[in-house]
Specification:
By secondary structure, the chain is an alpha+beta fold. The protein folds into 3 domains: about 300 residues, no CATH class; about 110 residues, no CATH class; about 60 residues, Arc Repressor Mutant, subunit A (Orthogonal Bundle), CATH 1.10.10. Helices cover about 40% and strands about 20% of the residues. The strands form 4 sheets. The chain has a 9-stranded mixed beta sheet. A 3-stranded antiparallel beta sheet has the order 5-4-15, with no helix packed on it. α4 links the parallel β12 and β13.
């Protein structure tokens, strides 16, 4: 497909995101939500849909769903209602999923994204609660040696579904939307968003139309995209596939498709269902959900500072760069660590440089996140203060930091043991500098003849002789004076 043909079309994308609520027990019973337990060990008559079992709504699940609603600027409805979404599949023992249909928990929200420096608001149609189905596992390839197993542990796990408006136009915008939503859900502790464990899943509705056309094209739904990379690749493929069909004189079928990771393509799964196919009706075993204004305010007061607000505050309060503010507020734990370093006495800008730079690199190399950081914030603050006060050089500071990270020792202990205190004795620096000049008469002659670039050579040699411990400013002053004699 040529770029010229692609440029004639515009994609229209909407995302449906399912996030598992971070509760200890399931949505309508007391079974554990713990991931990785023995198959079918976290089940009971309620989540297995046995006759006579009655569901009871998990209060904590409702509170987390309300928290998510407020975080994405939705209006929580005073009255919402659970419905039965009927379909038949081996890992759905009840024969229906408990969800919300005509009366969702919250509506009319938005999420702000930024792509290539441009900001955009993406509308959120609705947020509703539901429970999850089980999990089917398939083994073997030949028909004679193919086995299927069902693990019902996920049955009844509490979910929220967040449905965006069709406001996304590119895979990059979809990626930014999902990234921002994941960050918000983790900040508010609504969900751990672990995509490997299925805590965050995404379906994408995609259509294309000629640029400027008033009507949307026929959409296809791509199901169960469980990584950001797969989302981008699937959207890129699907947009090009649909444009190719239209250009060849064909038509896009309204259907559900799956992303084939190995093949790098989407493939048909089934014809697209419509709401009437599920035969929704109000769940007779669950009362409507009534939420008062006082309850909403209680949840609002319990909300942590959201990432956007925290980033703006960091820019205003600490005077750091926009880039550093973005890095430091990527996770709530990292932002808290940075502020702890500042509160322990480190200047904000150097603290931002150390945390966003050296510390992040070291954690990445060690395969750790900030929650497992072996270096307390106060210890890093002590090191930063010593560097800023000139007690050790910046180069020595990195060596000390590496030792502190590896051993857990304090900055003072490492500096003493390694003999890394900064040399600020002018007499000592002058003796070393004169010896360096004496050993390099050719470079001295070059400097005397007007080649001032040689100056850096002499400074570098003095720093080398002092193992990087000499005060750089003093070295420059002393070398300049000696060369000018």
């Amino acid at each position: 497909m040529t770029p010229e043909v692609m440029a004639r079309y515009e994609a229209v994308i909407g995302l449906e995101v399912h996030a598992q609520l971070d509760t200890v027990t399931k949505a309508f019973c007391g079974c554990s939500t713990n991931f990785g337990d023995a198959p079918n060990s976290n089940t009971c008559p309620v989540c297995l849909g046995l006759p006579g079992a009655l569901p009871v709504l998990n209060k904590r699940a409702l509170e987390l769903a309300m928290r998510a609603s407020l975080a994405i600027n939705c209006k929580i409805q005073e009255r919402s209602r659970f419905a039965r979404k009927n379909y038949f599949y081996p890992d759905l023992p009840k024969g229906y999923q408990i969800s919300m249909y005509e009366l969702p928990l919250a509506t009319g929200g938005w999420i702000g994204i930024e792509v290539e420096g441009e900001k955009k608001r993406i509308g959120v149609t609705r947020l509703h609660m539901e429970d999850d189905a089980g999990k089917s596992l398939h083994e073997g390839f030949a028909d004679s040696d193919r086995w299927s197993y069902i693990d019902f542990n996920r049955c009844g796990v509490p979910l929220i579904e967040i449905v965006s408006e069709p406001d996304l136009r590119t895979p990059a915008e979809a990626y930014a939307y999902l990234t921002t939503l994941k960050q918000i859900l983790k900040y508010t502790e609504v969900s751990d968003c672990n995509m490997e464990e299925g805590s965050l899943r995404c379906d994408a509705n995609v259509s294309v139309r000629l640029r400027g056309a008033p009507k949307f094209g026929t959409k296809a739904e791509v199901k169960n995209l469980n990584s950001f990379r797969y989302l981008s690749h699937a959207l890129e493929y699907e947009i090009e596939r649909q444009i190719g069909l239209i250009e060849a004189g064909g038509a896009v079928a309204q259907e559900t498709r799956l992303w084939n990771v190995a093949g790098g393509r989407t493939e048909p799964m089934r014809s697209k269902e419509f709401a009437h196919d599920y035969r929704y009706f109000p769940d007779p075993d669950l009362l409507p959900v009534s939420v008062s204004a006082a309850q909403v305010e209680d949840v609002r007061r319990s909300m942590p500072e959201l990432p956007g607000a925290k980033e703006a505050r960091f820019l205003g309060d600490y005077g750091i760069t926009a880039y550093d503010a973005g890095v430091l507020t990527d996770t709530r734990a990292l932002a808290d660590y940075f502020e702890a370093v500042v509160h322990a006495g480190a200047p904000a800008k150097p603290a931002a440089n150390w945390v966003a730079g050296e510390l992040q690199r070291r954690l990445k190399d060690a395969g750790q996140d900030i929650l497992a950081c072996p270096l307390p914030a106060a210890a890093l603050a002590e090191l930063i203060v010593k560097v800023e006060n000139g007690e050790i050089t910046a180069a020595s500071g990195k060596k000390v930091f590496a030792k502190m990270f590896e051993t857990g020792k304090s900055a003072v202990d490492v500096i003493t043991a390694e003999g890394l205190s900064q040399i600020s004795d002018t007499g000592a620096i002058e003796r070393i500098a004169r010896e360096v000049v004496k050993k390099n008469p050719e470079n001295l002659a070059k400097f005397k003849s007007g080649n001032e670039g040689v100056f850096k050579f002499f400074v570098g040699q003095v720093m080398r002789e002092t193992r990087g411990q000499a005060n750089p400013q003093l070295v420059n002053e002393v070398v300049k004076r000696i060369l000018s004699e």
